[in-house]
């Protein structure tokens, strides 16, 4: 079983596909679940622990927007743990504020420079593209050991 980071990290459909292929998906929902289940948070998921900003500083400099550091405090450890990656480009869910856009760029960069196997695909726009999209991901996942 290989730990596969899914980008965008909010994709439950890709996480399900990774899991069905016998691997462990690394996605935001699992990280948020850890936060919600932690007794030290009084009103999850709005509160953060004093350690969270420190985690974010490992991946983003102090002068970047705080939202980037906050997001990277969740995404960065997933990148560290990942043994492979699926990167989807041009999906509508990646549109957001500047903090989101910078986090997306930083996430893709950190995944690529880590040197793990990854597949990078464009978001499908029709049924034919969707079938090819799933097929290429399955072939990639089957090739992981």
Q: List segments where confidence is low: pLDDT < 50 over at least 5 consecutive residues.
A: none
Task: Give the strand order of the largest sheet, numbering strands 1, 2, ... along the chain.
Answer: 2-1-3-4
Helix percent reads: 40-55%
Count of extended strands: 4
N- and C-termini, Cα separation: 7 Å
Quickly give the structural class. Answer: alpha/beta
Inertia-based shape: globular
Strand portion, in percent? 5-15%
Rg, rounded, reads 16 Å
Average pLDDT, all residues: 85
Largest sheet: 4 strands, parallel
Order of helices and strands: EHEHHHEHEH
Q: Quickly count the helices.
A: 6
Q: What is the assembly state of the chains in this entry?
A: single chain
Gist?
With 145 residues, the chain is of the alpha/beta class.
Write up this protein.
The chain is α/β, with parallel strands linked by helices. Helix content is 52%, strand content 13%. It has six helices and four strands, in the order E-H-E-H-H-H-E-H-E-H. The protein has a four-stranded parallel β-sheet with strand order 2-1-3-4, sandwiched between helices. Helix 3 packs across helix 4 (66-81) and helix 4 (66-81) runs parallel beside helix 5. The radius of gyration is 16 Å and the shape is globular.
Layout of SSEs?
Blueprint: E1 3-7, H1 12-20, E2 24-26, H2 28-37, H3 51-57, H4 66-81, E3 84-89, H5 98-114, E4 118-122, H6 127-142
Parallel strand pairs: 1-2, 1-3, 3-4
Keywords:
145 residues, alpha/beta, four-stranded parallel β-sheet, 6 helices, 4 strands, globular
